[in-house]
Design a protein that fits this description.
Layout: E1 2-9, H1 13-22, E2 29-32, E3 49-50, H2 61-80, E4 85-86, E5 89-93, H3 96-112, E6 117-121, H4 122-128, E7 138-142, E8 146-147, H5 150-163, E9 167-169, E10 174-179, E11 185-189, E12 192-201, H6 207-213, E13 221-231, E14 242-245, E15 255-258, E16 264-267, E17 271-273, H7 283-296, E18 305-316, E19 324-327, E20 334-338, H8 344-361, H9 387-396, E21 403-405, E22 410-411, H10 412-420, H11 428-435, H12 448-459
Parallel strand pairs: 1-2, 1-12, 2-9, 5-14, 12-20
Antiparallel strand pairs: 3-8, 4-8, 5-7, 6-7, 10-11, 11-12, 13-16, 13-17, 13-18, 15-16, 19-20, 21-22
Protein name: Anaerobic glycerol-3-phosphate dehydrogenase subunit A
InterPro entries: BFD-like_2Fe2S-bd_dom, BFD-like_2Fe2S-bd_dom_sf, FAD-dep_OxRdtase, FAD/NAD-bd_sf, G3P_Oxidase/Oxidoreductase
Pfam family, one: DAO
């Protein structure tokens, strides 16, 4: 039975962020994810806005961790090689009541230590975003808001943690957790048993279920379902700033979100669900998104929607709509990192430090790791290279001269690198998250089978055993002819 100092359960942006932080220390750590890749739960169904921290109520964990986490992203982007886009945020007001809410958010920003936030009038708003609804009378403008692809950040965190000695164990569903008289946990998984001194539960909507495996019933988690629409990169009413209407107590509202890759998202709805696995779209939710988008930009071309998807954000019930991050009250050494809803992606680097400190308070010795490498060198993005750089890369490896995804200009060389480097891609969707193959206008209509062929070849498996995303999600089930 393999022994660890810390086992992290859950491979989203929270769990991988904690793994990335602990990799800086001489600590034997494993991250366990039940799926075939990291970043496939709430992290995947996320708009990717790095909120600067003007929204959380002062005094909450969100108010403490959101601004701190957001400020860490520029440095992390440079070290780990993931994309970061500076957009700013507009919280749009349509009435005097909305303008009072803007004033409240400005006060929050001051108390939470968020700089470069101001109130602008309708004329200033339309000078910045000319397609804005003419009924808008003003807005809060937060200049420091940035955009990420949360799954890309989770992959970068996991890759760097792995390079620094962390075991990233996918296909490891946790089935049981016990603690012996010596204070050691045994974590029973679908792939075997492991022992550890500490457990960090970062299992998203299933965090309370994982805690229950250890006999802990200190909170409950419910999923908040959200539909999201993806628009084509070419819009007749382009926007450059993240736009929200004035928020409600439960949600920041239906937003227009310019992504790091050039698409625009409409997201997201907010419906509490009993079924934690329900990530299906529904017509009512999509129509709500369209109405919300038109409230912000009336002439937006809804025919440019190229995909819809949904996710669930984990909400810790009866917790003041806040994060639930603490050592268990009943089982020492078991750390909860639960209820990480919005602004979870923005907060994740600071959550990682907070959990590190909780582990230290629980007795974990944190000695700096010798030879720790903070940098990750991502595989080349062929579409971003100059012609001269592309030619040089093709001369070095001819696979970079074979275009697989025409919409996003993704090459065979990039897909092969995605499969073999870092926490390698083992599914069609895992390749998509690392390379954008299939994320373009045709939504993999031309490239998916070629991606599957490359996966089968590089993994040494039949094409029928290539999975789309989860286990038992094969795309092919045998030949009809030949």
């Amino acid at each position: 039975m393999k022994n660890y100092d810390v086992i992290i359960i859950g491979g989203g942006i929270t769990g991988t962020g904690i793994a990335h932080e602990l990799a800086k220390y001489d600590v034997k750590t494993a991250l366990m994810e039940r799926g075939m890749d990291v970043g496939i739960g709430a992290t995947k169904g996320n708009g990717g806005v790095v909120h600067p921290g003007y929204d959380p109520h002062p005094g909450t964990l969100k108010a403490k961790l959101n601004p701190a986490g957001a400020r860490m992203y520029p440095k992390l982007s440079k070290e780990l090689g993931f994309d970061l886009r500076h957009t700013g945020t507009l919280v749009v007001a349509y009435s005097d009541a909305d303008l009072k809410k803007v004033d409240e958010l400005l006060d929050n920003a001051k108390v939470n230590g968020v700089d470069q936030v101001e109130k602008i009038n309708g004329e200033q708003l339309r000078n910045r975003e000319p397609f804005m609804n003419p009924a808008a009378v003003g807005a809060l403008l937060a200049h420091t808001t940035t955009m990420i692809d949360p799954f890309e950040v989770a992959i970068a965190f996991a890759d760097n943690a792995k390079d620094n000695g962390t075991d990233i164990l996918t296909n490891h569903e946790v089935l049981g957790i016990t603690k012996d008289e010596d204070g050691l946990f045994t974590v029973r998984t679908s792939a075997g048993d492991y022992r550890t001194r500490y457990v960090v539960d970062a299992a998203g909507v299933h965090a309370d279920d994982v805690a229950a495996l250890a006999g802990i019933h200190e909170y409950r988690v419910q999923g908040r379902h959200g539909n999201i629409c993806v628009l084509d990169k070419e819009l007749s009413t382009p926007i450059s700033t993240v736009m929200f209407p004035c928020p409600s107590p439960e949600t920041k509202g239906l937003a227009l979100i310019p992504t790091v890759s050039g698409n625009t998202l409409i997201g997201s709805t907010a419906t509490m669900k009993d079924d934690k696995e329900d990530v299906t779209n529904d017509a009512e939710g999509i129509n709500e998104l369209i109405a919300g988008a038109r409230h912000l930009v009336p002439d937006i071309d809804i025919s440019k929607i190229i995909r819809t998807f949904a996710g669930q954000r984990p909400v810790a019930l009866d917790n003041g709509n806040d994060f639930y991050i603490a050592e268990s009250e009943t089982v020492p050494g078991f750390i909860h990192a639960a209820g990480i809803q919005s602004p979870g992606a923005a907060s994740s680097p600071a959550i990682a430090e907070y959990v590190r400190d909780l582990l230290a308070d629980a007795g974990l010795e944190l000695k700096k790791r010798e030879g720790y490498n903070p940098y990750r060198e991502p595989a080349p993005d062929f579409s971003k290279l100059s012609v001269e750089e592309q030619d040089a890369l093709i001369r070095k490896d001819p696979a970079y001269g074979r275009i697989v995804c025409r919409c996003e200009t993704v090459t065979e060389g990039e897909i092969v690198a995605a499969i073999h480097e870092g926490v390698g891609a083992k599914t069609v969707e895992a390749v998509k998250r690392r390379t954008r193959a299939g994320m373009g206008r045709c939504q993999s209509g031309f490239c998916q089978y070629r991606v599957m062929q490359i996966l089968a070849r590089e993994l040494g498996i039949p094409e029928e055993e290539v999975h789309f995303e989860e286990k038992a999600s094969q795309v092919l089930f045998g030949k009809l002819k030949g």
